[in-house]
Amino acid sequence: MATVDQNAIFAAQPAKAIARPAEDRIAGFDGVRAIAVLMVFISHKTTLPHHDSYGSVGVWLFLVLSGMLISSILSEMRGKVEAGTQSSWRSMGDFYIRRSLRIFPLYYACLGVFALGSLFTSFVGFSRMEATIYALYGTNIYIEMTPAADHGHFGHLWSLAAEEQFYLLFAPILLFTPRRYLARICVGFMLAGAGMLAWLVSVKAHPNAIHVDPLIAFGMLGVGGFVASLKNLKPPAWLVSALAQAAAGLALIVIPLVFGYFRATWNVWGPLTCIVAGLFLFQIARNQQTPVVAFLNLWPLRSLGRVSYSFYVLHQFIHFYEVQAVFRRLHMDLDAPLVVQLALELSITVALATLSWHFFERPFLRLGARLTAREGAEASSATAALSPNRQRAMR
């Protein structure tokens, strides 16, 4: 899950290279992450009617946002290549170093804990073969091949696998192709995803197989990339107004509530919600001075969004019955209504994610910034690539 420097996007002055990750981000984007991860949490922790559709929209929102930011970062890197200040190979190395140090440490630490635990007990969905698949980021392909199987609490790792596969394919394409082709490349991914969705529906594939298909996920990441390519587009004021932002944001909540009930229709048309997600993110990036952005930038949402990656990874492994087991070992009985159980699971997950961010993830981010810092060069950021004012200043 990409993070970006807000100052580099909206400022006309270029930012200098720094030896630490940027702490300033686009206002509202962390709030979007928070809402998305809460939708996923609700879908996995409750049995509300068609609850899985909430989680689907949450993941799709994550994918579009990741596609938008990653495409912007790669476009900015390609701009340096075209300016002759850095080679494509060096840029690709920098990109993979940063992405690896952002994603791998927590991911492999979690797998390592389960691998160690499997020496003493067994976990559903974590056989030796399955653990190897997770380690190689093949979860989505494995689930697509075994859509009706019980994957335990590891099924949510499919979206991380899809993003890693996208990085491996997308980064070389963008870094070795003139960046004026960004929109066409992203449209190509979008069409490939739509074509795969149509084909899987036509052959009556299992809904779980459709949900995790790599090409469909690539198409959603491509939607985000296409939004990033619109940096020079001057939208009409009404399109990015507070009212329009509120309408798009509410649509992302209402669509799964209304249409998720119709399962057959949802499997076919639900993924198109990613277009609404792209519109919403475009609106936020292009108009930061609205009550909607102010709401998304409130401290609770901003804080949760900042730790959303670790929250997403960890939330499926935190359960009330595990807390009960601890209390039983202390010869104490613990019981509570469902709403209290959910609140406790949410609190524990947020606490662990916050500790992970401050003491585990952020040091690796800083290491990545130091390893890829270039003296006298601008820091690569999605914000720089998204700013039309910045582009004009560079001419």
Describe this structure in words.
The protein is 70% helix and 0% strand. With 395 residues, the chain is mostly helical. It has one domain. Helix 3 crosses helix 11 (242-259), helix 10 runs parallel beside helix 13 (273-286) and helix 16 crosses helix 18.
Quick structural overview:
With 395 residues, the chain is an all-alpha fold.
Distance between the termini: 31 Å
Report the sheet-strand fraction: under 5%
With helices defined by DSSP (H or I, 4 residues minimum), what is the helix count? 20
Principal-axis shape equals globular
Number of strands: 0
Mean pLDDT score: 88
Q: What quaternary form is this?
A: single chain
Order of helices and strands: HHHHHHHHHHHHHHHHHHHH
Structural class: mainly alpha
Q: Which regions are unreliable across 5 or more consecutive residues at pLDDT < 50?
A: 4-23, 375-380, 389-395
Radius of gyration from CA coordinates: 21 Å
Q: Major sheet, described briefly?
A: none
Question: Keywords for this structure?
Answer:
globular; mainly alpha; 395 residues; 20 helices; disordered C terminus
Chart the SSEs and their pairings.
Elements: H1 6-10, H2 29-45, H3 52-83, H4 88-117, H5 128-135, H6 139-145, H7 158-175, H8 182-202, H9 207-212, H10 214-228, H11 242-259, H12 263-269, H13 273-286, H14 291-296, H15 299-306, H16 308-315, H17 320-329, H18 338-372, H19 382-386, H20 388-394
Helix pairs in contact: 2-3, 2-15, 2-16, 3-7, 3-10, 3-11, 3-13, 4-7, 4-16, 4-18, 6-7, 7-10, 8-10, 10-13, 11-13, 16-18
